[in-house]
Amino acid sequence: MNVPSPSPQSAIPRLDLRAVSVAFGGLTALDDVSFDVRPGEIVALIGPNGAGKTTVFNAVCGLVRHRGEVRIDGAPAPRRTADLTARGLSRTLQGLGLFAGLTVRENVLLPVAARHDADDRVGAQLRALELEPLAGRPVAALPYPDRKRVALARALVTDPRLLLLDEPAGGLGADDIAELGVVVRTVAQAGCAVLLVEHHVDFVMDLSDRVVVLDFGRMIAHGAPDDVRDDPRVEEAYLGLKATA
Predict the structure, then answer these.
(1) Cα first-last separation, the chain
(2) Measured between alpha carbons, how far is 70 from 14 in angstroms, rounded to an integer?
(3) Alpha carbon distance 121, 4 (integer Å)
(4) At 68, is the pLDDT very low, low, confident or very high (cuts 50, 70, 90)?
(5) pLDDT tens for each residue of 128-179
(6) 8-17, pLDDT tens digit by residue?
């Protein structure tokens, strides 16, 4: 797999949120949220629907106005997508965001089309995610799990140092979820910081180094997976959700 070169654990977090708050009119979507993600670490962001998880991603990516600080490698996060990409950030979307009329290869190529090594990068990702046999097929003709792999390949083709994954396991079966876990661990082991939003609680608890739990925009728990799983505030927030997650 074409992944970032390993980097030593740094005293400076790859991503650092400090007292981040977001409001839409009179509605508070995030309220004083603070946590970080370090190189080589997988941090999961969980919570009921409407808890503010995607709003965190949008704040990091400069898509919503916020109070507080979002820092990448110790410096304020830029707001422009091109500048974020240059700083090593890549993101998948809950809705995939693929171009249905383009082929698999063309979709993966888009983020690196101007680079001299684009063909090598795309080829490496297609091989790593077992997409080579599908490279010439339009994305619209693929089943959903394959389209999810295309979206992940497109996110990884830039060799990100910070990877945001928005519900990567959504709509996948058990075998595909297990394969996804292997890919995410490999990326993190190579030094990338990974922040993921996910509803599959068992997947999150098995994969993550730390878990952040949001409820109504507030952080109600933060720590190692086992500690978070046993937190009564988390159990209360997830009443009625675990059975469907």
Answers:
(1) 30
(2) 11
(3) 12
(4) very high
(5) 999 999 999 999 999 999 999 999 999 999 999 999 999 999 888 999 999 9
(6) 445 789 999 9
Domains of the chain: 1-88+162-174+188-245 (3.40.50.300), 96-159 (no CATH)
Q: Residue 33 pLDDT more than 50?
A: yes
Residues in contact with 239: Cβ distance below 8 Å, sequence separation at least 6, in sequence order: none
As given in the structure block, the two tokens for residue 203 are 């997947």
Q: Cα–Cα–Cα angle for 207, 213, 219, nearest 5°?
A: 145
Tokens 């009329």 belong to 101
What string of DSSP letters covers the chain? ---PPP----SS-SEEEEEEEEEETTEEEEEEEEEEE-TT-EEEEE-STTSSHHHHHHHHTT-S--EEEEEETTEEPPSSHHHHHHTTEEE--TT----TTSBHHHHHHGGGTTSTTHHHHHHHHHHHTT-GGGTTSBGGGS-HHHHHHHHHHHHHTT--SEEEEESTTTT--HHHHHHHHHHHHHHHHTT-EEEEE-S-HHHHHHH-SEEEEEETTEEEEEE-HHHHHT-HHHHHHTTTTTTT-
Q: Tell me how far apart the alpha carbons of residues 223 and 235 are, in angstroms, rounded to a whole number.
A: 15
